[in-house]
# Entry
Amino acid sequence: MSEKVYPVRPEVAAAAHIDNAKYEAMYEQSVNDPDAFWGEQGKRIDWFKPYSTVKNTSFDPHNVDIRWFEDGTLNAAYNCLDRHLETRGDQVAIIWEGDDPSDSESITYRDLHERVSRFSNALKAEGVEKGDVVTLYMPMIPEAAVAMLACARIGAVHSIVFGGFSPEALAARIEGANSKVVVTSNFSLRGGKVVPLKANVDKALQNENAAASCKTVIVVNRVEQELPWVEGRDKWYEDLVAKASADCPAEEMNAEDPLFILYTSGSTGAPKGLKHTTGGYMVYASMTHEYVFDYKDGDIYWCTADVGWVTGHSYIVYGPLANGATTLMFEGVPSYPDNSRFGRVIEKHKVNQFYTAPTAIRALMQQGEDVLGDSDLSTLRILGSVGEPINPEAWEWYNRIVGDEKCPIVDTWWQTETGGIMIVPLPGATAAKPGSASRPFFGVQPALLDAEGNTLEGAVDGNLVITDSWPAQARSIWGDHERFVQTYFSTYKGVYTTGDGARRDEDGYYWITGRVDDVINVSGHRMGTAEVESALVAHPAVAEAAVVGYPHDLKGQGIYVYVTLQSGYEQSDELMKELRLHVRSEIGPIASPDLIQFAPGMPKTRSGKIMRRILRKIAEDDFGALGDTSTLADPTVVDDLIEHRMNRK
Ligand code: WTA
# Structure
């Protein structure tokens, strides 16, 4: 743990929306009188019909029921577009920076409103109705934001599948959400390479169940190049919007109507589609964006996430646009055309807030202190970090090289399930400690529990839970409320279980220590070890597979795989390669195993349960901490595992 404390500089506190006194007062009201607090904050959003009640929530495992502003009506796209037209119609809403540095575009609120309205009508013409799910499988192009907002405008529910996921993963999500329409692009461009995106949709729709629900594929023409076409099913985005009217009234939605589904990995089973609703989500996304990034009118804000992840939903699209901000959307990668790209983009667009992931910072850091070249970074005011714990070395580097020691760093802890930022040092209020996400945002009540569910007080380590509801919380798992209750509200009764461990220090700061379940975090991407295992055992050579995380310099955690082969198969480098490719094609490149160890047997209890704790320790190189192995059915397998542990730097 880092000992250093970086106090809030007085000039930063004076200029910020929230200083420490304000934080303390507002926090206290937010937890003591949530109805009054959120009733007031709810006004940052325009309602068609105002709410008369604010909070109506229960974490009781027999009746998990979460409602905010439940009798209010609104439209998320209206809040992101229409309400800004009068005051900021000509202001830039989205700055789009293409993969190629010579390719960029500025889209005003008026333009964006028109594009969204046209595509809304196009979706309607394709038969999409209020409540239908539309799957988006798109690169980082403006049409991704347009499609999200068009769904929201007509009351359809978007389900974005990250463009790096495989056809199999896409098919499962189309089927799971029973999605009628998929929006994609013919190709995507990343680091100068052309990636065939629609080809993956074609493959996904070879799956009968996915094909049974999806009858229409709308294709954005991103790269002029030939591609296979299914007549009747495939339609060009450009053709549809050209004939659509630019007048489309925003549908009146109830606060608790779904806005989007987003699939994420858990410790067991297939990825689950979290259901987020409209009212509370919009209030919270808007508020956190303004206060966490100290966003002020005229600022240029850049979040480097992909819209395929929750960060892209809340902090590229909904939060910033609800606030009338200028949000930058980047199609490319930090290493193209060279490693100075982030710096070049900051300089080119005069970025004021920059929000990225520790894995990106570590990758830059490896390239040396002059990695950003002579880029002028002087416009930067706030830096953000998200997705995994930021190690103090990376924090210090970020502070020095990117922030020039003058930009507060907001280390934001949150999850797909939470909808918005939960624990964070507010730039004008909270002294930073490198590596700590620090204090809860308004309305957020964290607690640490021991394994038995007892609340721990003071400076201590424990399981991080949240004891009461906040407005942006996911309401359910799409089509499976029971699984929602089981996953988040059953381990400990009456609270939301995050799945993370944390330590609280003497100052009440939270330090996230990582997942306490079988979820690993690879370059900030969440992955269930069970998912990778089930991909592996689907390969004919694999009898049994166990997957654990291990510390990785760049990725935070790497994927370590133990494989027992079916008899008749020999271990070889070729087979190792093949297994790697197999996982990539089942899930996607982000799930590609880093290390594969062939093992004659797994450490199992006498009842046949694999003891992952032991596998984890071996992968971590921590042989001294294996603990009691005497309960194993065959303790000698451990010696073999240790002897053949993969060599790594
Ligand atoms: C981890 C991403 C430490 C954590 C927004 C969480 C973090 C999971 C941080 C959620 C942070 C995210 N410090 N750990 N600042 N931010 N995490 O759903 O383990 O993709 O449970 O949401 O990432 O990942 P998800």
Summary: DSSP finds 20 helices and 31 strands in the chain. The pocket of WTA is lined by residues 264, 309-311, 385-389, 411-416, 437, 498-500, 512, 515, 521, 526 (CB under 6 Å). The first strand starts at residue 55 and ends at 58.
